[in-house]
Amino acid sequence: MTLFGDVARWFADPAHYQGSDAVQTRIFEHVAVSGLAVLVGVLVALPIGLYLGHTGRFGLVAVNVANIGRAIPSLAAVALAIPIAGTLLGVENGLGFWPTFFALIPLALPPILTNAYVAVRDVDRDVIEAARGMGVSESGILGRIELPLAMPLVLAGMRTAAVNVIATATLGALVAFGGLGRYIVDGLALREYDRLFAGALLVALLAIAAELAFSAFERAAISPGIRPRSERSEDVARSGG
Amino acid sequence: MRPAIRVAIPFIVAALVASACGGAGTSGGAKPAITIGSTNFSEQLVLGELYSQILEANGYPVTRKFNLGSREIVFPALQSGQIDMEADYLATLLAFVDKTATGSTDPKVTAAALQKALTPKGVTVLDYAPAVDQNGFVVTKATADKYKLAKLSDLAPVASQLVLGGPAECPNREFCALGLKSKYGITFKEFKALDTGGPLTVQALVGGQIDVALLFTSDATVALRGFVLLEDDKQLQLSDNVAPVVRNEYLTKAGDDFKKIVNSIAPKLTTAELTSMNKLVEVDKKDPKDVAKEWLNKQGLIK
Lengths: 241, 303
What we know:
The complex is a heterodimer. Chain A is 78% helix and 0% strand. Chain A contains ten helices and no strands. Chain A has helices spanning 2-12, 23-55, 59-71, 74-89, 97-121, 125-133, 138-168, 181-190, 193-221, 231-240. Chain B is an alpha/beta fold. Chain B has two domains: 16-132 and 239-298, Periplasmic binding protein-like II (D-Maltodextrin-Binding Protein, domain 2), CATH 3.40.190; 135-229, 3-Layer(aba) Sandwich (D-Maltodextrin-Binding Protein, domain 2), CATH 3.40.190. Chain B contains 13 helices and ten strands. In chain B, the strands form two sheets. A five-stranded mixed beta sheet of chain B has the order 2-1-3-10-4, with helices on both faces. Chain B has a five-stranded mixed beta sheet with strand order 7-6-8-5-9. Chain B starts with a helix and ends in a 5-residue tail after the last helix. The A-B interface holds A 20, 82, 86, 90-96, 173, 175-176, 182, 185-186, 188-191 and B 69-70, 72-73, 165, 167-169, 172, 190, 192-194, 200, 203-204, 206-209.
């Protein structure tokens, strides 16, 4: 297939590893904006999800509100983020990194919030009753019992968020951001299909790499005793992500 | 069998009548349907509407396929028949179709060269208008003062510190980055792909993400925002008069009436008229459809 050969040649060309459009620069930009968006998602959604799961109140409300983030078309979000970034941070920051970053956060929140809430709700009630009976404090229950037992689903939520964000960060190229989307958007405009395909391939590989990295981290971080989770809650959380 | 045939007769008759009436322009003086395309900036929407509405007013069924993308997408669509007509610019289209051809600052010469390049592709360029829309390289007043910029030649010594912003095709285009390099010796520090002389490019210029912007000379924004349009002192840009291009396949079935109608727009379309229509759309945010209708009415081209 000639496209396959063209793409291979594109990757082999040393010119594509120099200058401001270099492959390594674009990968770095892409990882940076995705990583920061997921980090903000974790910092905001994880505590809320865990706490609501622990108290059991307003959880469904929170999950539904967070799901608005999934419903917003990311293309519209990125366009809407331009005036928001411009107003908040000045017109010199109204294009490029900041609107892309702001538009990715609503995408990162839902899987993390939903999974954290469901995971904590799903902890065996008997275990918690026993802990209360033993005199463990509420925060102790959350931190030492619910959180470790919730880790598999919580990490799965972060993994889903990361993969979604990495794939969607390509839209940043439409608002003067760099990242791997640059190859896709420019390739389309210039009808350089080898560049377009190279960009798409790199995004896919990056998403797969994130998926694998999280899976490896899950295997390392979760105690073997917790790992075989009940099928029902796993399915509920995963099908939502 | 008999009842079945009786039921079938009306359908057979209808089918015969329909096939007799079908076929573009073959019965009752019906005009052949035309698909008009455009590239992706607001002036193209206005031009597309001008041609669409004048043809509709004369009984042509028009399908609009506007905002398709850059010329890299629209011109092949014209060649393949996905669109029948689009409004283009003499010198830039010539450079696009034939990289070796030389346009000129004389539109008559350019138009002749363009037709020569288009004939083997089965396309005809109709009458061109006095209206000219060229690539303009624009800086903010602050940048012009800082680097003492009034014309493009002034950019050559400082360009390596500056960022150019424009449509993604710019690095490949002779009237853009390629020509700036070959004719003026200008090499920028970086190029940022934004949009085709539109709001993203303007915002990037205002916000300082780019230092030099590619905007179009018929764009009202340049004057309104107090930007400085750098003079093309070495004549990189050639005669980019607006002219519609049409597939020959459509022209043969459309007849001379079509050419007369379309060509009635050209003499009245000056740069000033085009710029004022652009202002209404880009600055006053009016609908290109309404702006085109008002102009055609004012010029007495439609009732």
